[in-house]
Amino acid sequence: MPGAASHGGRSAGRCEGSRQTAFGGMPAEDPLVPRLRQISRSCCLVKHLGAIFLLFPLQIFEWWYFQKYGTSFIEQVSVSHLRPLIGGVENSPPVPGFSANNGENETNRQSLSECKVWRNPLNLFRGAEYSRYTWVTGKEPLTYYDMNLSAQDHQTFFTCDTDSLRPSDTVMQKAWRERNPQARIKAAYQALELDNDCATAYVLLAEEEATTIIHAEKYFKQALKAGETVYRKSQHCHPQNSQHEAQLRRDTNVLVYVKRRLAMCARKLGRIKEAVKMMRDLMKEFPLLSMLNIHENLLEALLELQAYADVQAVLAKYDDISLPKSAAICYTAALLKARAVSDRFSPEAASRRGLSTAEINAVEAIHRAVEFNPHVPKYLLEMKSLILPPEHILKRGDSEAVAYAFFHLQHWKRIEGALNLLHCTWEGTFRMIPYPLEKGHLFYPYPSCTETADRELLPTFHDVSVYPQKELPFFIHFTAGLCSFSAMLAVLTHQFPELMVIFAKAVSIVSSPGLA
């Protein structure tokens, strides 16, 4: 019937309309729905990428800061600034006469003393050696920091308060402060015009103008003649007042410096026995100047003569617990003990029969030397390339290792099997040292300041050896993991939005079951 059909049609229309409006009144086939879903996914992707782009520069900066300064920037800021704000530091009144950190403070003081920069006892000549390297390679072997320390040394050794009494000394006082080498050389000639017996002027010309060792030796001989004359005058007319005491001290420093450099010239020119005699006489004449480490020059010359009994006698005198150690002392002692067994040493035979008493002594001496300066073996074994040694060194640092290996590598090569014994045993040292390096095995803990000082002492083209190898801080690992996780979530949400929604709901249900 038409009425019934009309009624049925209206009923069907109402049912279909109710199906169409069951999801909020929007038709299922509406083209806006996929568009909105795409926009939602894009917004989610943008949100995750924004977090990544914010964290990525932070990670790059944290890595750069750690490589340059050896510490985490985020950790440093947290400890220094955020921890006090949240009450992480308790301000307790100090107890008079007692400190809970006495041991730590003592260790810190020892570490600071070990990080003191020393003048290299075997430093080269600027004009005859360092400058020749620059002419050939175009590279500067000395850093500004190193040369500035030398300028301070020269002012300390060669100037005093009475320089104003002698015009030539006044000129030289200004010369040592000049940065330009040509200006220093010009000032030295001006001082010689005023006084032909100005010893410090000859010293400056020998160090910086002379282009050969023979030329430098000629200047130093003139300096010795002038220096001895002035030194005798200072000795004979030495009234008891502070100014003349300073003048005598200065004249003594000049004389000792000149005699030592003359001995080094003789060593470089092949007159080794003459050099040894000059060094022995100098140490006998001025026994109180042991801080100049003239015995290290003597050790190297005696090793060149292969006078091993004399080397042992020098070690017996200076390898003392009360004296500051050096790589030259420790490694020379190890070399002498290795010499007794190295020609017959075989790691395969030693593993079968065990080490003899002499071999044990040699291995222990090597371990002792490596613990004092762990950078030296790589240079002796030619695992790292050598450069010219700096004018100043840091004991136990890479700069000291470069200086030692530069002069002593030939002595290790001369003894058959010595480098083989070193190669087989030196890495065993690190199994004996506690980790982290809160305490040493035979010496104080390895100082943490060596890398910074060595980077200032050694040229930029040299790859500075670092010990111990630094581990990346937690925050670099954390930010790297967070960036990677955020990137993964962004990609998964963009590619599989429905699965990620289901996963998010499941995680929310598991994390808060009471709200499900």
TrEMBL record:
Belongs to the ST7 family. Keywords: Membrane, Transmembrane, Transmembrane helix. This is Suppressor of tumorigenicity 7 protein-like. Residues 1-14 have a biased composition (Low complexity). The keyword Membrane applies. It comes from the Eukaryota. GO terms for cellular component: membrane. Signal peptide: none annotated. It is found in: Membrane. It is a multi-pass membrane protein. It holds the Pfam family ST7. The keyword Transmembrane applies. Residues 1-23 are annotated as: Disordered. PANTHER family: SUPPRESSION OF TUMORIGENICITY 7, SUPPRESSOR OF TUMORIGENICITY 7 PROTEIN-LIKE. It comes from Gopherus evgoodei (Goodes thornscrub tortoise).
